[in-house]
Input
Amino acid sequence: MGLVASMCTEPMRRRRVEKDLDGKVAEALRERARSRQRAFRSVNSITMRLPRFKDGLRDVRDVFDGYDEDSDGTIDAEELRRCLGELQVRLSSEQEADDLHRYCDLDRRSGIQFQEFVVLLCLMYLLFGPDVTRRVSEFESAKLNYVFDELIDAFIFFDTDGDGKMRRRDVTQRMNESHQERTPTNITAQLFKEMDLDRNGKVNLKEFLYSMIRWAGLETEDEGTDEASP
Ligand SMILES: [Ca+2]
Ligand SMILES: [Ca+2]
Ligand SMILES: [Ca+2]
Output
């Protein structure tokens, strides 16, 4: 394929990959919503869990460091392929692993940094089940499953029509249900804007997870403590 042609088709391919993976995640979420009891009844019950999320995910740092073989703070495509191999996540091609790598590069700082790695693990857990977390760490898997279950259930709480995407009105609705007084519009707008990383007016599971992890205060090595909080 010529350079010009590939420059035109690459963004299209990316969008298709993004859409395909979004679709798979949405399907898994629907399946899950059908088979589980509703876990959360208010926004407060979710925000109260943030310290527990942080606690439960702390040890993933060592897992990340293990797969970041050259210790540059980033899991590159090559390192991710080996990681998925060890976790026995069966993908049909190397291309699929690379697609996943790109899908989870949420901050567009190329490669998968620590917080993005947590998102990736949670998505793998949703799509492939608890075998993934058991291979991450036999010892920590129960704790990880618990946190991932809660994070996914929190998303389901906000995704009121169950299509795998949160919209601003969903957040507003849930916030207002939870509080005696209506939450000021600018607060929900700000919250939503922080979550909607690609600014497309919808928040999918990966964007939600990424935001929750940041708000829980799970830091990357180089970012310090100046994270935004809701
Ligand atoms: Ca690396
Ligand atoms: Ca990144
Ligand atoms: Ca979005």
User: Anything to note?
Assistant: The two ends are 47 Å apart (CA to CA).
